[in-house]
Specification:
500 residues; alpha/beta; Alkaline Phosphatase, subunit A; ten-stranded mixed beta sheet; 16 helices; 29% helix; disordered N terminus
Length: 500
């Protein structure tokens, strides 16, 4: 209210000064009633009046030049908490008092994740909400219920506008980075439209989709934006070679196309790489538009990665920022830690937490490489998982370990009703039902250990609770309270000025 009051509520001394300066709002020469003589303003009063007149009408919010959206796929609140402790303990620190890089961001909101037709969402519907500002159904990518074949050749439905579309039309550069296949739901939602998230490759398009002239997501990635040096995505790094090559070249495409060659033919500035050494050989300042595919399917988990073949999430993030920033156009970059989700589905907490730890490293690097003055950084999840932290373990207890109570005098694990020890971390459902085999600390802290579950399912499921959104930089002040996932689109758009 202070700045607003300055516009309309001037002090008596200020009015006196304004009159003396000839700035009265009425013309005293035509006033019938004689006006009393006014005392001459003091020097201080005159200076005050000049200062108040010089105040801007309204302070304009600082506009962001760049937006980086980090998505930890499946990174619910419990995952963040457990990863914070895991990260601290892996560094020999106090885990409970530790903070992940993005937990230092000062702006925070809770985000509702449901799909139009599902209380518990999937990545396709949630990523669509973030990229279009419109919720959709589970399993659908950037289409609405009344236009499921939008974007297909024989459909008259208009597909929702993507945030990447707005960015490209505004002259910004765009990029995606993911440890999942680039045709997987979250990265595909940056550039694609599909009635089914399963349409990653031509052979997976349903008969009705084929009849409508729909094309697969791999082909959409390459075609996005048309041809030319400045057309479409400037950087696309991740897994998923199988969808880009025919069977004769080790891929899975039914049509036999080599989409990597098709990408390279978009312009002389387009190139394809498939190893970390080839990626590192490219000078970001040359403005190459790079498609990098580093695995036939998803990339390896960070703890299993061959460092001579595949880049880490942090390394890909560094390359993408260097490449996009060198263009000086402003940019939109989506970075996904896609394998947090996969580890959770397998009830493998170790890999879920180590993937979250790697995401935190990538965020820290991005924060270091950019300026708070012109770059909005958002860190969120698309959905949560049925992952729990429980059992009353003592402070400092290994987060992956068996529960040892604060009251324990001999350091022995607590026992459940079946007289067996149990872990702090577990899952509500999944393939590994608790049995009568006694677990040991060495067993449960191994990276390949699969946490126990209460309800047997072939695969653990997503969770439906709200997820967190962390933000810093221009536009971060919009992030507060409880918001809908679709509002992330507006937050990004308003920050860079492509949404009113």
């Amino acid at each position: 209210m202070k700045s607003f009051s300055k516009l309309f509520l001037l002090s008596a001394a200020s009015l006196t000064a304004l009159s003396a300066l000839g700035l009265s709002s009425c013309d005293t020469k035509t006033t019938a009633v004689a006006q009393p003589a006014l005392a001459q303003p003091t020097l201080a009063q005159s200076e005050l009046a000049q200062t108040e007149l010089a105040q801007p009408a309204l302070a304009q919010p600082v506009k962001a030049k760049n937006v980086i959206l980090f998505i930890g796929d499946g990174m619910g609140i419990s995952t963040i908490t457990a990863a914070r402790i895991f990260d601290g303990q892996s560094k020999g620190m106090n885990g409970e008092g530790n903070r992940l890089s993005f937990e230092e961001f000062q702006n925070l909101a809770l985000v509702k994740t449901y799909n139009l037709d599902a209380q518990v969402a999937d990545s396709a519907g949630t990523a669509s909400a973030m990229n279009t500002g419109m919720k959709t159904q589970i399993g659908k990518i950037n289409v609405q219920p009344d236009g499921l074949y939008a974007g297909c050749a024989d459909s008259t439905a208009t597909p929702p506008t993507l945030f990447a579309d707005l960015a490209e039309n505004a002259g910004m550069s765009t990029g995606i980075v993911s440890t999942a296949r680039l045709t997987h739901a979250t990265p595909a939602a940056v550039y694609g439209h599909a009635q089914s998230r399963g349409w990653e490759i031509d052979s997976e398009i349903s008969k009705d989709g084929q009849e409508k002239g729909c094309i697969d997501l791999a082909a959409q990635l390459v075609a996005y934006g048309g041809k030319g040096a400045n057309a479409g995505l400037e950087v696309a790094l991740g897994g998923g070679q199988g969808a880009f090559f025919g069977k004769d070249e080790g891929g899975m495409r039914k049509d036999g196309q080599n989409l990597a060659i098709k990408w390279a033919k978009k312009s002389n500035a387009h190139s394809y790489v498939d190893t970390v050494s080839d990626l590192n050989a490219i000078d970001a300042a040359t403005g190459q538009n790079v498609l990098g595919l580093f695995g036939k399917s998803h990339m390896s988990y960070e703890v299993d990665r061959d460092k001579g073949v595949q880049p880490s999430l942090t390394e890909m993030t560094r390359f993408a920022i260097d490449n996009l920033a060198a263009r000086d156009t402003g940019y939109f970059l989506m970075v996904e830690a896609g394998r947090i989700d996969h580890a959770h589905h397998a009830t493998n907490a170790y890999r879920a937490l180590s993937e979250t730890q790697e995401l935190a490293r990538a965020v820290a690097l991005a924060d270091e490489m950019t300026s708070d003055e012109d770059t909005l950084i958002l860190v969120t999840a698309d959905h949560s998982h049925v992952f729990t932290i429980a059992g009353y373990p003592k402070a400092g207890n290994p987060i992956l370990g068996l529960v040892v109570s604060p009251e324990s005098e001999d350091g022995k694990p607590s026992l459940a009703g079946d007289k067996l020890p149990y872990t702090t971390l577990g899952y509500h459902n999944g393939p590994h039902i608790r049995d009568d085999v006694e677990q040991t600390d060495n067993m449960v802290q191994d990276k390949d250990y699969k946490q126990q579950t209460a309800i047997k399912r072939a695969s653990e499921t997503h969770g439906g609770e709200d997820v967190a959104l962390f933000a810093k930089g221009p536009g971060a002040e919009q992030v507060h309270g409880i918001i809908d996932q679709a509002e992330i689109f507006d937050i990004m758009g308003k920050a860079v000025g492509v949404v009113d």
